[in-house]
Amino acid sequence: MASVLSYESLVHAVAGAVGSVTAMTVFFPLDTARLRLQVDEKRKSKTTHMVLLEIIKEEGLLAPYRGWFPVISSLCCSNFVYFYTFNSLKAVWVKGQRSTTGKDLVIGFVAGVVNVLLTTPLWVVNTRLKLQGAKFRNEDIVPTNYKGIIDAFHQIIRDEGILALWNGTFPSLLLVFNPAIQFMFYEGLKRQLLKKRMKLSSLDVFIIGAVAKAIATTVTYPMQTVQSILRFGRHRLNPENRTLGSLRNILYLLHQRVRRFGIMGLYKGLEAKLLQTVLTAALMFLVYEKLTAATFTVMGLKSAHKH
């Protein structure tokens, strides 16, 4: 039994990773636009398509895909860890009964914490590689020069110490609520729909995935802005308390943002983020559901935790 469960978790993990990589590749330029809007406050263009047109005009046609490989590899690891942890915990805790919304939230939260602690260094490197060579409007930003993923790790450890790889961990831990909320709504909506019909269509899965992600993103967006700024780590801000993006830094950044842009400043880049994450999450869940179903059919296994 245990081997089947761990094999199942593996299938879920691989399907989750493949789903997220497919979806992220399709909507990657939207993420580039969102990151610029969050980190480079001096940018005049407020809308997603204007920022993308600006980036293409100034930095070339492939610029919206800058940093694609590190993002995809980080995402692949990250989703693998998340789906594996989520499904293993669910198998152990729910043991074939119907899950509840509360359990889904707790399992999602624990899976998220494990994921953050293991994969934050990848995301720090990622954010920097993605912004390398970008033309910033903000003069306070110190440019970087990394040759690739390994070189970035090496330079960050050498120049800023090993803890710099966990920059932004604190907001990331708070942001664990994002996938937890997303999974809670996703599983909950799925359960509601399955009461009414036998099987969910592709469109059902796509819409549920989109709604779940839209709620989670809007709730947690201000923390995501802070997380991007801390991970990028090139803003000259109080250097004495850089450890793990301490609470003081987070409050300081939130306060700065509100003072300069008003309360809406916390939501700068939200439409790009919503457009990208909602479409990405919906497509990811769709690929994920189809892949797990197909794999279990091929292997002649019934999923042990049909919800």
From TrEMBL:
Its main location: cytoplasm. The keyword Cytoplasm applies. It is found in: Cytoplasm; Peroxisome membrane. It catalyses: FMN(out) + NAD(+)(in) = FMN(in) + NAD(+)(out); FMN(in) + adenosine 3',5'-bisphosphate(out) = FMN(out) + adenosine 3',5'-bisphosphate(in); AMP(in) + NAD(+)(out) = AMP(out) + NAD(+)(in); adenosine 3',5'-bisphosphate(out) + NAD(+)(in) = adenosine 3',5'-bisphosphate(in) + NAD(+)(out). Solcar repeats lie at residues 7-92, 99-192, 200-294. PROSITE patterns: SOLCAR. One of its GO terms (cellular component) is peroxisomal membrane. GO terms for biological process: fatty acid beta-oxidation; fatty acid transport. GO terms for molecular function: ADP transmembrane transporter activity; AMP transmembrane transporter activity; antiporter activity; ATP transmembrane transporter activity; coenzyme A transmembrane transporter activity; FAD transmembrane transporter activity; FMN transmembrane transporter activity; NAD transmembrane transporter activity. Gene3D superfamilies: Mitochondrial carrier domain. The keyword Disulfide bond does not apply. SUPFAM superfamilies: Mitochondrial carrier. InterPro entries: MCP, MCP_dom_sf, MCP_transmembrane, Mito/Peroxisomal_Carrier. Peroxisomal transporter for multiple cofactors like coenzyme A (CoA), flavin adenine dinucleotide (FAD), flavin mononucleotide (FMN) and nucleotide adenosine monophosphate (AMP), and to a lesser extent for nicotinamide adenine dinucleotide (NAD(+)), adenosine diphosphate (ADP) and adenosine 3',5'-diphosphate (PAP). May catalyze the transport of free CoA, FAD and NAD(+) from the cytosol into the peroxisomal matrix by a counter-exchange mechanism. Belongs to the mitochondrial carrier (TC 2.A.29) family. Interacts (via N- and C-terminus peroxisomal targeting regions) with PEX19; the interaction occurs with the newly synthesized SLC25A17 in the cytosol. This is Peroxisomal membrane protein PMP34. It comes from Callithrix jacchus. The gene is SLC25A17.
